[in-house]
Structures are given as C-alpha cells and as structure tokens.
Amino acid sequence: MPFPWGLCLMHRSWARPLRGTAPLLGSPARRLTLSAPRRISDFNSFVVRTNTCGELRSSHLGQDVTLCGWIQYRRQSLFLILRDFHGLIQVVIPQDESATSVKKVLCEAPIESVVQVTGTVISRPPGQENPKMPTGEIEIKVKTAELLNPCKKLPFEIKDFIKKTEALRMKYRYLDLRSSQMQYNLRLRSQIVMKMREYLCNLHGFVDIETPTLFKKTPGGAKEFVVPSREPGKFYSLPQSPQQFKQLLMVGGFDRYFQIARCYRDEGSKPERQPEFTQIVDVSDVFRNAEIEFLQDVLKEPQGTIKAICIPGGAKYLRSKDFETIKQFAVDHFNQEVSPVFLKTSGSGKSPLTKLLKEEEKSTLIRLMRVQEEDMLLLAAGEHKKVCSVLGKLRLECADLLEARGVELRDPALFHFLWVVEFPLFLPKEEDPTELESAHHPFTAPHPNDGHLLYTEPEKVRSQHYDLVLNGSEIGGGSIRIHNAEQQQYVLETVLKEDVKMLSHLLQALDFGAPPHGGIALGLDRLVCLITGAPSIRDVIAFPKSFRGHDLMSNAPDYMSPEEIEPYHIQVKSPEVTDRKDVKSVISETESSQELVFPSLAKAENP
Amino acid sequence: MPFPWGLCLMHRSWARPLRGTAPLLGSPARRLTLSAPRRISDFNSFVVRTNTCGELRSSHLGQDVTLCGWIQYRRQSLFLILRDFHGLIQVVIPQDESATSVKKVLCEAPIESVVQVTGTVISRPPGQENPKMPTGEIEIKVKTAELLNPCKKLPFEIKDFIKKTEALRMKYRYLDLRSSQMQYNLRLRSQIVMKMREYLCNLHGFVDIETPTLFKKTPGGAKEFVVPSREPGKFYSLPQSPQQFKQLLMVGGFDRYFQIARCYRDEGSKPERQPEFTQIVDVSDVFRNAEIEFLQDVLKEPQGTIKAICIPGGAKYLRSKDFETIKQFAVDHFNQEVSPVFLKTSGSGKSPLTKLLKEEEKSTLIRLMRVQEEDMLLLAAGEHKKVCSVLGKLRLECADLLEARGVELRDPALFHFLWVVEFPLFLPKEEDPTELESAHHPFTAPHPNDGHLLYTEPEKVRSQHYDLVLNGSEIGGGSIRIHNAEQQQYVLETVLKEDVKMLSHLLQALDFGAPPHGGIALGLDRLVCLITGAPSIRDVIAFPKSFRGHDLMSNAPDYMSPEEIEPYHIQVKSPEVTDRKDVKSVISETESSQELVFPSLAKAENP
C-alpha cells in the first residue's frame, strides 16, 4: 500500500523552493552572494506559505500571499516587519473595526514570535518606499493573522549580536544563529562544501566514503579521546583524522577518495594558528667573518644560524617604540633576541649592528635582502628552528603594525595562495635531540631525491609533505605517502623507535600491492573563516565548543552517576592536583577537513 | 608567492578524469549502472596514465597509452590482464630478445602487484576477440613496463570473495574492498548520497549543517557511548542522533536543514530488523460468541485480541511440516501460539479450529479476510502488541516459504514504499504497565485531533510519527515535533516523569519563537542495502564493525595502559561477573542517516 499517509500528517508546511538570493539582512565584512537554488515546480501540496518574505517585489502587486516568519519589529500599532531567512517584508496592521481580532494578534504578539499572515501585496504610498529594502516598494495588506508560537523576553536583541559576549552567544546559540551574519556564514559554508563535492564527485569521479570514528589508538596519537567499551579495560579512540583508513582505501583500489571528515583532537585551545614558516633569507655567510662576537658564538653551534627578513618601508613607518615592542615580543614568546638593521642603499645606516659591519658585508646584505630605500631588516641569530619561528611570526606582526600606520599591505578581498614544501622529514626530539621524531607523521614519504639519505643521514631527508597557505593562514596540508612496506617499517622501527605492532595491519596492507598515493586535507573551518572574513572559527560552526571544550548551551561535558558508567567497567578517580592547564581541553571535532587522496607515483628506494 | 611548489612534488600521478561507466567486473544481484562523471579537460600536468584500463576500445587503435593497474592474472608468459577499477585490459608480453627486461618485469611480478605499462593499442588477431570483455577487441603491445609495488602471497583470491568467511573478509578488508561487488556497492552509495545532496541543496535550498558528536547525555538515552573529559568525573556522550540539534537549528531559523549524520548506538547487534507491523485484520468480534474457551479467555484480558492474516495460496503450496515450522517459530520467538485456519470459500475446511466455528462465523471470517480458494489463514490470540509482532514476522516468513516453493511473490527489482502512521504516542512500560514511555521519543507531537486527550487519557493519543518502509524493511522514520514549551514540559514531566533539568536548554529554546517543524531520518546503510541487494549492511560500509563491535582489521577496541587513561581521571574496574550478553556491543556509528528537518504547521493545543 505505497500511499504516503505519513505526509498527510505533515499537512501544511513552510517548506517551499527558494527564489531570491538569500540572505538580504546585515552586511558582513566580506559578502559573497549566496546562489539561489534552481526554480522547481511546486511539487508539495503540504505547503502553506505561498512566498518567502524576502522575494516579494512590485511584480507581485495584487497577489494574495500567505507568509510565515518572525516579528522583527513593530512601528506603533501600524506596521510590522516580518522576517524569514530570505528577507524582510512590511505588513500593514489593519485599523478598521472589522479586523480587531487580526489587529489584536499582530499588536500583542511579542517581538520574535512566529506568525502567519495572509493578505494582498500592495504598493506603498508615494514617498514611503524604502530603497534600502529589497521589498521596499511594497507592503502586505493583511486579511488574516495567526500566532504560531509566542516568544518570551529575549536575553538579547537578535539584530546586533556583535556587541554580545561570547559566553552569552554560546549559551543562547539558537538565537545567535538567527543573526544575519551566522545565517550567511553557515549557508555559505553549506554551498562551498556542495561545490567541493560537485567538483570532486561529478567532475573528477572521486568516491565519497565514510570511515569509522571509533577506532584504535594511533602511535604518537596522544590527545585522542578514549571511549571505554563494554569489555573490561578495552577502549576505542576517536582518531584525529582518517589517516590510516584513507591509505587502506587506496590499497583497496578506491583510486579517488574524499571525505568531509570529523577530526577529534583533545588539546588546549589554540587561537587561529599563525603560520610558522616564512621566506627568510639565510645571511650566516655574510657574518661568517664579521668581528661580532655574539654572532660568531651562534655560528659555532651545530644548529646555529643567522637569518633576516626585510620589512618594506619599515624604516619610514615604524617608530622606535614599535622596535621595542617587536624585540620584547621576540623575547617574551621565543626567548630570542632580534636586531633591527637599518641600511640605506647608499650603504649608510644608523642601527648599532650596522656600525659593526664592513662596507662589503653591508653591500652583500643589501643585495641578498634586496633592500630598498626606507626598508628595515630584522635579524635573528640562534638555533635554526627558533629563528625561523620568530621571524615568521614577526613578519606578520610587522605587517599588522604597518597597516596600523596606514600602510596598505594586504587586501582582504584578495585570495593569495602559497604552497610550502620541502619540509624536513624528521626533527630532533626536543627532550632528546639525539633522537628523531616525524615532522608531520610517520607515513610521509621521503623526497625522491633524498631516499638514499634515509638509511645514512635521516635528519637530512626532505619530506614530500606540502602545506597550503591562504592569506598567511595555513588552510591545509598533505603528503605523498610511503607505499612500500619495508620502507614504512624501517621508518617506524629504526628511525622513530615506534612499536610497529599497533600498525601491523597497515604494514601488511602495504605488502599486498598498495598503489603509490598521496593526498591533502583542508581545514574547512579555517577556510570558510577566511572566505567569510569571520573573526573566529566559532562563527562558521553551528554549535562550537568553548575554549575549555564546553557546550555552554547544554552544559556538556557533565557529571555521570557511577551506575551510568558502570557498564563500561570504569570508575572516576579524582586527581591529586588539578593543574589549570590540564583541565583545559578543546574539541576540534568541528574542524572537519576534506580528505581527498589520489594515487601518485612517489618513488621509494628499497633498503 | 602563490606558486604551487607542492604540486611539483606530487609529480606524475594516476589521477585522471574517468570516461567509461565503472565498474565492469562481476555481476551483482541487482546491478545499477554507475553514472560516469562528465568529461573535463586534462587540467593536470602531473598525470602519468593516459587512459584507464577499462575505457580502451577499437577507437583507440594505434594510440600510444600509459596504463597503471593491478595484475589480475597471467596466461603462460604470453598475456597479462591488467585491472583498474574502470575495467580490465589484455597486455601482450613481448617475446623478442630486445625486450627481455620488460618481459622479466611482467612475468616475475606476482599477481595483484601494481605495474605501469606503456605501449600501443592494437587489435587482437582475428578469432581471438573476447565479446564478453568490453575491451575485448583490442590489446596492448607493450614497450616499457615498471613494477610500482610488488604483492606478497594473498590470504585469498580477490575474484571470488563470496566464498570467504566474514571474519577473513573483515581482517583483510582492504583486499575485500578490491572485489567488484564492494567497489560497486561503495561507488553506488557515493553517487546515491550525491544525488540526495543535489536534490536537497540545489533544488530545494536545504542547508547542510554539521552538528557536534561530543554532546551531553540525553534522557532515556541509554546505550550512548560515554567519553571521559579531562575534568574529573565529567563525561560527554556520543548522541544516537542529532535529535536536539536539529530542533535547535529550526529555532535558529535554518528553515531547511539536512545532514548525513553519524549515529552512535552501543547495543547488542540486531540482524536486519524485520518490520513489526503488518495489515492485520482484527477478528476478535468474529469469535466474541464462539464457544472456544481459550479464545474467550484471551478476549477477557484488557489487551487481549484475536487477529489473523491471510496467506494467499498457503493451503496449496505449504506443507504440514511448514505449518509446524511456523507454529514452532511463533512459540520460540514470541512465546505465542498461532493456529493455521483452512477455509474453502465453500465454507468447508479441515483445520481443528475450523471445526469449532459456526457457519455464520466462517462466512464472516471469509468475508473479512477476503479468503480465496487455496488460501490459508494464520490466527493468533493474545496480548495486542505481541499478536501484531508475531503475525508481522510470520507474514514475511511465509513469503519466504512460498518463494522457496517457487511461488513468485516479490520482484527484487521493484521498489515498494509504504508509510506507516498513526502510531500511539505512548506505550505502557513493560516493567510497570501503569507507567507510560514514549513509543519513539519524547519530542514527537501528538496527532492534531488527539491533542485534548494528552491531558486526560494520554495512552489514547496518536502521534505524528511516521515510518517509511521499502520492500518490507523499515528505511526511515520521523515526526512532527512539539514546538510549544509548555506542552513539551508537560510530556516530559507529567507524562513521562523525566528529569527536565537535562533538557532545560531545549525547553528554553522552544520558548523563544520556535517555528512548527518536523522531519525525517533515513537509514542510509539499510537503504543502500536494499538498492544494491546486498545481504548485510556490512557490504555497503567500507570499514564495518563486527557483531561484537570489533574492528577485526586493527583489533579495536584494545587495552590501554593506566597512564594512557590517566588524563581522563578514570580507572578500569574489572567486573565481578562478565555475562555474555553484557559483553556484546555493536557500533551503529556507520548507520549514518540523512537528517532533514523542515518546518510544518503541526498544531499543538495548550493545557
């Protein structure tokens, strides 16, 4: 009996094809127009609204319409602005005797109540048109009105959510979501993801495959949430990424796979991470023979280096207190000295360091750094990694300072992409520099030209990892993977001293004809952030967690009774000391990232 | 510097737009053709393969091509069949002196090794064409060959995975995935989901929104996995569905939301659930005055009823041992007696019960049940719910039996949809029938016509829940939700005696202008199962868990050291007794379901 009784129960519904481009409220920093769905026939007999509030124009004059929406505001007892998420429309409250009941509904319903009105589209009286409002030429002459759901006193006004505190926004997220900015962000995000899918699936034959989120602990996978099972002592882990599964899918012959995957990371919250790489120029050789003691000391160290970046117009626009700020910042955040260097192209220059330089050294420096009039150099001498980090950070700090001084450096409407490549495959462990750890993860393949070094000088091997940067923010990264079991085992066992037992299934898989492959993962939240110009990823996620991993709306995580956790054979063990940092815990699950993996031909030498 | 250095590292890749329709191997029970992606320009300079194995035809004759794939098999040292997931191609192994190295590679590489060959497309010698093979008119004359990755001895042959044990398939899932059936299932699944997305997003303006999976325990949400946080004693839950979030999105004004959501359910494994409803006819009145004692006893009970189903042709095709099987089944699974009743339209009939019936009762029964010659009735007398369940199950059992006897009842190529509606809103608790529990969940709205009963006789209220059934299997369900805070609070507090504190955020949300709304959730795994004709949902999931919730490939869940769980302030508490059932635990996370919610106008009377 294939008769849709169920639908009969749904009877009248708001559901209806959109027409206009939505939304029409507010004006975000960076506004892209949302594409309107294609017009489709009104297949649905359960629809009650005949139009959306936002789509009505003069072309609808004289039409009888039924609209549903929220009461945005009321002007005296005469007008009422109705809102749905396609726009605003003005409704004229009838004043005549015969319509007292309708007037009562429309005048007494609190702001943000849900109402349904039926009436006629009429043109506004001459002079009362509102050109700022897409529906500003018309208004609705109401015949009937119905209060669908009243609204209690709001904790804040929907209109100006920007002024609200983060905590208040999170506690009443469902109200915050009504703001035009959040509506715009989440609707645009949905369309961006859809475009990605259409491109991958429809144009390039990628296969969308869901991989499990209840999995086994991954080596080095600290910061993975644990999920107790009903088997005493046994736990699942929530993986930080489908790392292993996507490789197993390659072995399984899904030659083009992608997924919008959840990534669970249990770690202290990072604000929008600043990229820690930069084009820096190594100027060690310039100072090799310079009679500057502290520089010489640095160069004697194994990892010692001297690097510099050029701040265009730095000499002209930055003030001495800026230099102090910069130097202090470097000391505070990196415990690293930096020296501003001023060099006129003439060769003259007034910074302390400049005085100590020979003419020849100055000119080399000017040439190397492509120094122009009124530029400024920032020079750092110290351990390689630290020097790179500090200069990378300072480069952005200086950009902010210069922009604060009115120098136009970055156009927020432009998208500048940058690939960062040739990362080292391994880095010395901080706790014990004689041992190595993966710069990214143990599955990254060595650079084809460095394969031989893997077995002699692993620390010198470059990786086939690549990062993608948009306007200075890292939005994704990926790598060509090791597809050779022996090489993978060598890296895990010999180089990294990892326990390979936990990865036996992966090593085994590589042995059964794994194709060469690689891929990339994009941080979707970050990407949408940059596209919408949102200040935080929390503005592009429907229900984000707080810095401390709390859901302020439902108050998760919450206490559970011993009975509730009993089936999982665990009990709570109250800690001796609860140190602040340890309590911190943020969930990056909402940092969903698009996983796409495709075979390539990264070569791998056998031992 | 927006220059794609990173890509340079990826150099030659297999990646390439597909052309043919894939896959061409195997022949699944129910084969739908996979749509081929639209042709796009070869944008990618890192591509190494010029074609896929499956797409070559006579039209390619004379072309030089580079192919990558797995060695499917080798005929003597003369031919080699290369496979990728777009098809098979025959490669001629060169025999001449000059090509010894190429011959060596192609002859010595083990089966399922990954190789790359370059050569010319030539036509097969007359008489050697293979019409069964889409590429059967041609073959490849090889110039160069390269072994990209050798394959060790396989635990089983890829070709015939059907014969393998479930456990073996799961342990080597990445090999199992190479089978044409799994490739077909997962590729089709991906396309089905994509079509759903295109329909919802592009045609109907639905917004795709991800909701958190680390959330707070939901009332009555037993069987939710718990996730310990770093705050002593505090836990997250993995929700069984985005239940609350989708409603909060409605309040937030996303008037058309959907999501392909993960559902986590920690419960004993159910094989493909059989629907427990059926069109049964209540025949209690027929027997009201019949002098049949055990029937009278039943009718005296409060929930007592007598129901029957008609098995067309049952009298003709089913044997007496079938009847025994059926009766035994009912007793074993439902502890319920059922009686076969044979009634000739003439009124005669030879079953024990028939003898006890008056002529008038027989004729009523024949009329009520629309009994035809050679039909058979199955009659069950007992508690209403139990009788419905047993007859619903037996209806399907009998269908299987009849089909086993060669009666054609169900065409697997046809899709029959059925809506099941007007469920009761509440059911008496099994443990205490004087108390009520939700038939589905506490957020379902009462039927508009029954609203008044909610406050007087809640047990009589019908719900606005609806289930969707495809070919006898439940594939989804949904409901119009309560959008009125008072009504929701009344249901939770007064009717269900739930602790509303845990849902204060939802109740509050309903108070701030929640629009009337409803939705539906489809069980994607189940749906794809029915479309592909797969025997189990594990055949439409890339990495399923076993019945006991184990990942047999990686051996998850696994033990963790006290150190590893220490940050979560829990410790393992070994149980006194570990009873078998308690250990059972299956993960339905892979039962992703499509959540789509849209406002409707379900009315709700206030108290």
Explain what the structure shows.
2 copies of one chain form a homodimer. Chain A has 607 residues and is α+β, with helices and mostly antiparallel strands. Chain A has 3 domains: 58-149, Beta Barrel (OB fold (Dihydrolipoamide Acetyltransferase, E2P)); 182-287 and 410-571, Bira Bifunctional Protein, Domain 2 (BirA Bifunctional Protein, domain 2), CATH 3.30.930.10; 314-404, Gyrase A, domain 2 (2-Layer Sandwich), CATH 3.30.1360.30. Chain A contains 18 helices and 24 strands. In chain A, the strands form 6 sheets. Chain A has a 7-stranded mixed beta sheet with strand order 6-9-24-20-19-18-15. In chain A, a hairpin with a 2-residue loop joins strand 18 and strand 19. In chain A, helix 10 (320-334) packs antiparallel against helix 13. The longest helix of chain A has 24 residues, at 180-203. Chain A is globular, with a radius of gyration of 31 Å. The relative contact order of chain A is 0.10. Residues 1-30, 38-43, 268-279 and 577-607 of chain A have low confidence and may be disordered.
